[in-house]
Amino acid sequence: MEPVLFFDHVSFSYHSVQGETTAISDLTFSIQEGDFTVLVGPSGCGKSTLLSLACGLLKPEAGSIQLFGHSPDLRKKTDVKKNPSSAVPSTVIGYMFQKDHLFEWRTLYQNAMLGPELHKKNTPEIQEQVTDMIKAYGLTDFHNRHPSSLSGGMRQRAALIRTLAIKPDLLLLDEPFSALDYQTRIEVAEDITALIRQTGKTVLMVTHDLSEAISVADRILVLTRRPTHLKADLRISFPNGITSAAERRSHPCFSEYYNRLWKEMKNNADV
Q1: Using an 8 Å Cβ cutoff, are 228 and 23 in contact?
Q2: Of 53, 111, 171, 199, which one has the fewest beta carbons inside 10 Å?
Q3: Which long-range contacts (CB under 8 A, 24 or more apart) does 164-167 make?
Q4: 87-108 pLDDT per residue, tens
Q5: What is the reported pLDDT for 217?
Q6: Is residue 38 pLDDT above 60, yes or no?
């Protein structure tokens, strides 16, 4: 089966007047459809850079990146009907950042509908689906509220609804819970990952929190210090197919995975 995303010996450097900084070196990995993959690694190792490369905002200096068999490029708009050989035919990427970036002058519902509006997909069907997601998150009473009247958890849930509303083929999450307090972070992670799994989306997520990674992932890729390459590839599988973030945290297997992951991260100091 062709992978959704394939990094093939990718290298990337940043250039400035001070010189060249190699961020990523000879990195190879692939992600299959439906996988929830999490990237962890030392601070500054280039995890967010990887997401920018994955969606085409940055281009590799060596190696290649394939998204559904084509080179990704968010900067290029294509029309597959007019140009059948366009770079990434009908592929949609959803990108959720650390901050929610909701617009204060739009209501929760209007913020959630921003993606479909920009993609010219503001159809009755999409409107109904967004309303259903708002209801599923218990946000119906806040449907017409503006962001300033919402809690951090509510705002982040609204941001996810906005991201899912465009029906992405690949969902990129850049530390989506890091701005929340600890308790809210756990609650929102539970809600958001449950909804993502229900939709069967393919996910590539970045986090610094090892516990968070284990609680949500099917697979964890451990990255080295800069220049980044792949140090370990850890599959996460709980008995009875447990996918609930809360249930995973309380399961005996959780500490085993944590110790293995911590050992890999600790050994990064020797890389």
Answers
A1: yes
A2: 199
A3: 164/94, 164/133, 164/195, 164/196, 164/199, 164/201, 165/112, 165/113, 165/115, 165/116, 165/126, 165/129, 165/130, 165/133, 166/92, 166/94, 166/115, 166/116, 166/119, 166/121, 167/92
A4: 444 578 888 888 888 999 999 9
A5: 93
A6: yes
